[in-house]
Amino acid sequence: MSLLDSTTSIKAGAQARPAHAVGPSAAAARLNVRVWSRVESVSAFGAVIVFAILAAAAWTLAGNVVPWDSKNHFYPMFRFLADSLARGDMPLWNPYHFGGHPSVADPQSLLFTPTMVLFALVFPKASMAMFDGAIMAHLALGGLGMIGLFRRRGWAPAAAVLAAIIFMLGGSAASRLQHTGMIISYAYFPLALLALEVALEKRSWRSGIVFGVLADFQHCIAFEQRFEQGDGAVQRDLPRLFGEHIGPAMT
User: Fold this and answer.
1) d(CA 139, CA 144)
2) Where are the alpha helices (DSSP H) in the chain?
3) Domain ranges across the chain
4) What does the alpha-carbon distance between residue 59 and residue 143 come to, in Å, rounded to a whole number?
5) Angstrom distance (rounded) from CA 230 to CA 220
6) pLDDT in tens, 101-112
7) Cα angle at 192 between 186 and 195, to 5 degrees?
8) I need a labelling partner for 226 at 20 to 30 A (CA). Which of 7, 26, 105, 146 fits?
9) Residue 235 has pLDDT above 50, yes or no
């Protein structure tokens, strides 16, 4: 028996539950999957939160910060955004980078990342360590999204915690930790998938809107960073989508 095996049948509960019932337990009943107990739910979500706090504390106490692009590019962009908002200015044009840079045209400026705009408003003079903490908080949020996915599908809580930990600090995240935009986009994925599943299963337009917003955040942030880094797949596929005439402008 694997960690993902469902161990409890709830057919009887599904027959007894009214058709209009909503929530994770009702969804589990309709999908004929295992329902987590309250203790299992609290334990799984709590384990991920504790792990995220311990991981961030270990990083901070060691005096480490995420190097390279995180501090050479994204942190200065964040500070310009925060300083502009603190002065009451609209951060549409950044005169300090690249001899002048249109922040409003660059998703990597973090201007269109609501969580980072909120962070800039609350902590306009955030240190590099605090900036890293905000990015790691996104990963923790994605880890909680993984728990939500496993819970909705009735998979084992132990497997959910393991998957969340791997999602947060596995190779996919660790190898791209310097690329702030990609990490934020990556962190939204479990939440977007969860919203999509809810929208399809409940035929909910509200969940559909949530999915659309999260998916749009993913697309804009990650696509722009891949293009600016010279991702071959992006640069190869763009001419196919928009016409071969844009090819010379990209070389």
Assistant:
1) 9
2) 11-16, 24-31, 38-61, 69, 75-87, 114-122, 128-153, 157-169, 171-174, 180-202, 205-228, 232-242
3) 26-250
4) 18
5) 16
6) 899 988 788 998
7) 160
8) 146
9) no
Residue 205: Cβ within 10 Å count: 9
Q: What letter does residue 70 receive in the DSSP assignment?
A: I
Encoded tokens for 183: 């990490």
The yes-or-no verdict on residue 224 having pLDDT over 60 is: no
SS (HEC) of 18-45: CCCCCCHHHHHHHHCCCCCCHHHHHHHH
User: In Å, what is the CA distance from 216 to each residue of 32, 119, 131, 219, 242?
Assistant: 32, 20, 23, 5, 19
Token representation of residue 218: 């993913």
Which pTM does this prediction carry? 0.77
Q: How far apart are CA 123 and CA 82, in angstroms?
A: 8
Q: Which long-range contacts (CB under 8 A, 24 or more apart) does 190-194 make?
A: 190/142, 190/143, 190/145, 190/146, 190/148, 190/149, 191/141, 191/142, 191/145, 191/148, 192/218, 193/145, 193/149, 194/145, 194/148, 194/149, 194/152
**168, 178, 226 from 185: Cα distances, Å:** 13, 13, 12
Q: How far is CA 2 from its chain centroid?
A: 28
Tokens of 6: 């469902």
Helix (H, G, I), strand (E, B) or coil at 9: coil
DSSP string, 139-183: HHHHHHHHHHHHHHHT--HHHHHHHHHHHHHSHHHHTTTT-HHHH
How many other CB atoms are found less than 10 A from the CB of residue 24?
Answer: 15
